[in-house]
Amino acid sequence: MSPVSGVPGKDFSLEDVRGSFPEELEIESLSHPVGATVVIPGSKSVTNRALILAALADGHSTITNPLLSDDSYYLMQALATLGFSLEVKADEASGTAQAHIHGQRGIIPNSDSSSELSLFVGNAGTVARFLPPVLALGSGTYLVDGVSRMRERPVEDLVDAIRLLGAKVGYAREDGKFPLIVYGGGLRGGEVRVEVSRSSQFLSGLLMTAPYAREGVILEAGEGRGSKPYVGITTSMMGDFGVEVLVDEGFGRFEVSPSHYRAIEYAVEPDASAASYFLAAAAVTGGRVRVPGLGKNSTQGDLRFAGVLERMGCDLEIGRDFVYLGGPEQLRGVEVDMNEFSDTMMTLAAIAPFASSPTVIKNVEHTRYQETDRISAVVTELGRLGVRVSEGRDGLRIEPGPVEAASIETYGDHRMAMAFSITGLVARGIRIRNPSCVTKTFPEYFRVLDTLR
Q1: Which of 4, 95, 199, 363 could pair with 339 as two cysteines, CB 3.0-4.6 Å apart?
Q2: Which of the following is catalytic: 16, 302, 343, 413?
Q3: Distance between alpha carbon 375 and the CA centroid of its chain, in Å?
Q4: How far apart are CA 88 and CA 86, in angstroms?
């Protein structure tokens, strides 16, 4: 990846982040167990929350180790378009990066009510769900749109909640989907029930904006609180930026009083979802991997995937600031509810054929509404590999057995590409179509994967 520096959308573009990829990439299988220390880039979930909180804060914040990928770029570009002073500095030689942003204490700088400001979010779910409540704080009119898949992804529950908090937001096509039109004027506040069965990002976006409502805000989470860990990241980070969220014991009711965030220096920890691929590589090859920077104090629920691998026979140690995993001679199958760490569901599915017994993944129906219908996609591609798999409404069952050579369709989903690349470390002839989709969250993924050799 080329070094990037300056203002997103002005001094550097997505091409500076993405680099170049072939149309199809063959994964070279390994002839030996993995043995490596792997440095993982910053968390997407944490990076995008930090950018929003810093933009809403009072003064200059510095975010260290931000993820530089498609998703974070779209948010940074949107904030720059909205008039926030934002500069990114990255040093490829040292592998370090910083984002500097000057917050306006809940004010949106570019708020011209006489014209409509367009913001493009690609297929970045966090950006699409975090931005609309923020835009309601402005005084202008804002159009939020994305790629064709984003126009299929759910957003009605967020729109309904914003409206109940006193802001005006509508659909550009009146079909209950993106694009959205947000009319500024501020949030009144009040008590609102937020449906989170299809995405907890609706709740997180509203929570982060809540301190700037004219009155206090009480948010009650609807049924399906499966992404509780992600909301936990949100409330924890809001506290880091100086705003307390009162949360009930059941983690279903959230109360925020009128306040403002303080500007701080914030370090983004490595991405636990991205770490799952390298932990899985050690597990499936009988090798060992150490991931520095992630540890027992991590706020990321996806680190629970390491515990699933331990149940499958791996040796696991989670220290203060590292994770170590050693793989067994052969994995054993597992039955697991992955509702609260479903971004790693595909990682488990990709190594399940090599286990000694079936693997059952349960309670992940919400993944059907993400970058692609992830349950259907995984079932289809495992079938392409000759693996016996059965699909349910909210999960799948994978039988162990030989894996055939095949080209894997990724459906534009970064996690499909990264997960099935791990299958290719063991099975010969695995090719990944459209490998460039990994730039959504991990542009350097295949280069880092090659270091395992």
Answers
A1: 363
A2: 343
A3: 17
A4: 7
